[in-house]
Predict the structure.
Amino acid sequence: MKWRHWAILIVLVLLNYIIFSTAFTQLAAQRQPQPRPTRTPQPTFESVEARLVGWIVVPTSTRRPTRTPVTAAPTAPPTATANSAAAESATADAPPPATETPPPPTATPTVASVVHTVQEGETLSVIAQQYGVTVEAISQANGITDPSLIVAGQELTIPLPAEVPPTDTPRPQPSPTPKPKPTKRPTPKPTKKPPPTATAAVSQFTAELIWDPLVAPNCSGPAIAKQSMIKDRAGNPINGARVEVNCYDNVWLSHPSGMPGEYDPGHYDFSFGQSVPQNWTCTARVFDVNGQPVVSSDIAYIQFDSNDCNPHGSGHQVVILNWIKHW
């Protein structure tokens, strides 16, 4: 064979090699599986049987003994007005002097005092109105620096300024004619001031009770919800306040309001340890603020009702009890 034949044969072999190798490469690429995107697993839900909510008693709630009521000792009413009226009557009955005499000097008022026992809900302003004196006079007589800090059962000395009899004006010299008999003026009867009513003064804390069916189902145990808040009249939260709860002479104290890590500012709650509805009547009041006792607070009556125990029934078990500070 000539060299031309050999060249043509070599070219044909090379072409076949190129064609077959390309075909095999494409076939292998087509048979290789393509990567697919990873699917995000969908969450699965498991049906849970509905059950009653269990409420537990707050661990740090301290039980307090039942308070013994304090009976106020009767105090003698002030007699300064009666003594003044008697002195006026004696002056009127005395015959006029024969000669003109200079007017007597003005008498210096004397100070009398009575002891008053503070009753539940009384403030210094109410006591001052009752005896007709000022709050400053009572504070000075008892060494009180903060007039808002008085407690029930405390004995206060009430200074009572005695009335000064009117100064006699110079009487004209009598004529030699017969002296007329002086007419006796009727003795005025002293008038007593009516005692102040309980609504004369505003309590330091007033209550706002709300039954909200969206707070908890009616079939749960009785409780004060965590939405309850203690605030001032401007709406600012009050922290460190404790609420006293009394259920049939069982007395407890709640956690301080706004406790860090447990409540939002100004909020508090209370649980009675019952997981089933109860027909209870309990009372609540603000006991102290940062360790300082509260002199007067509204008494909130909470009537837990198990009537029609359904999620949308007419009963009520969980209450929102807000308090507003007025001092």
